[in-house]
Amino acid sequence: MGISVVLLAYKEAENLAFLLPKIKEMLDSLPEPYEILVIDTKEPLDNTSEVCEKFGARYINQEFPGFGGAFRTGIKYAEMDKFLILDSDGSHDPKYIPAIYKKFTEENCDLVIGSRYTEGGETNDAKSSIIMSHILNTFFRICLGIKAKDISTDYRLYRTEQIKNVKLENVNYDVLQEVLLRMKQNKPDLRIGEVPISFQKRIYGESKRRLIPFIIGYMKSLIRFTFIRYPILRNILLYGVFGGLAFVLDYALSLTLTKTVMKDAPEIASIIGNVAGFIFTFLTNTFWNFKVKGKFALRAASYGGITLFGMGVSTLCIHLLKSAMPFALLKLLVLIFVSAIQFVLNKLITYNEKIIKSDNK
Predict the structure, then answer these.
(1) Of 88, 302, 355, 357, whose CB has the highest number of CB atoms within 10 Å?
(2) Which residues of 163-183 are buried (b: 16+ CB within 10 A; e: fewer)?
C-alpha cells in the first residue's frame, strides 16, 4: 500500500522548491504512506538534486531518452501500489491530489485523470494551445477508444502494477496516449475517472515543448496507435504495398528479359516475372506483415494455391466482362477484387496459426 509520486524534471529546480512542500502537505492528509521520486535529466543541468535532498524527495537520473524515457524511468523505480504523476513546472496544483485519490479509491478506478475538460475544469493556457489540445484529444479519443475528455495531460493516478505490465516505446509526450492504449489492451473494461482541475501556466522557466516536432510526432503516433488497435488495417496496407512492389518487380523483370536474353520467349520471361513477384510477396508478407514462423513450406504451398486461385478468378472475370467496359478499368477493378479475396484467404488460412500449426513458437 502507498503512493509513489513522480515528477519529471528538466531544469525545474526553482519550481520543485515551490511544489515539493505543497505536495508533501497534500500527501500527509491521506491515509497512506508515500514516496516522492524526481526523475531528472541523465546529466544534471541545475541543482535539482540539492532541492530533492532538502525536501526529502528521491533523486533519480533518467535512464532512457526523452519525456517517454523519463516516464519509463519513474515507472521502473516506483515501489508503492499507486502511481501519481504530475507536472513539475507548477501547472498542476497539488491541491487536487486528495480529490483524485478519493475518486480513485472510492470508485475503484484503474486510472484517474486531473482533467481540464471535464465539467468544472479549466485551463489558462494560450488559445492556440487550447485549440490544438482539443483537436488532439478528439482524434486520440477516436483512435484509442478512450472515453475520457482529457487524455493529453499527465496529471494522473494509476495502479502501479498495471503500468509496470505495459511495454512503452514512445519517446515523446505521446507516451501519455500510448500508456492508455496499452492498459486498455490488457484490460478492455479499463475504468477511468476524471476530476476537474484548473491548469495554470508554469511558475518559472520556459516550456520545453517545440510545436512542429510536437505535431509531427503526434501525427506519426496517431497512425501507429490506430494500427496497434486495429492490426488488420496494418495488414491490409502492407499487403497492398507489397503487392504493388511485386507488380513493379514482375513487370520490370519480364520487360528486361524480353529485351535481352529472351527476345523470342516472352511467355517464359512472363512466367519468371510472375514467380519473382510471387516469391517477393510471400516472403515480405510472411516475415514483415503477418510475422509468422514455422511450417514455411506448407505456408508457401497455401499462398501459392491461393495465388493460382486468384489468377483463375481474375481470368474468368475478364473473360465474362471484357465487352462490358474498357479493359484498363476492368483490369483495375478485377485486381482490387481479387487482391481482397486473396488477402482474406491468406489471413484465414496461410497465416492462421490454428489451421497451420507452427512448431516454432
Answers:
(1) 88
(2) beebebebbbbbbbbbbbbbb
Q: What percent of the chain has pLDDT over 70?
A: 95
In which residue are the cell numbers 473494461 written? 189
Q: Which amino acid is at 273?
A: G
Which contacts qualify for 73-76: CB closer than 8 Å, 24 or more apart? 73/39, 74/4, 74/6, 74/8, 74/37, 74/39, 75/6, 75/160, 75/163, 75/164, 75/168
CATH class of 3-229: alpha beta
Range list of H helices, 117-230 = 127-144, 160-164, 175-186, 211-229
**β-strand partners of 123:** 199
CB 125 within 8 A of CB 163: no
> What does the pLDDT average to over 74-95?
95
Which residues lie below 8 Å from residue 233, measured CB to CB, with a gap of 6+?
226, 227
360 pLDDT higher than 70:
no
134: its cell numbers: 482539443
Determine phi and psi for 84, rounding to 5 degrees: -110, 125
Region 297-326 average pLDDT = 88
For the chain, what are the domain ranges?
Answer: 3-229, 231-350
Q: How far is CA 85 from the centre of its chain?
A: 20
pLDDT tens-place string over residues 22-67: 999 999 999 999 999 999 999 999 999 999 999 999 999 999 999 9
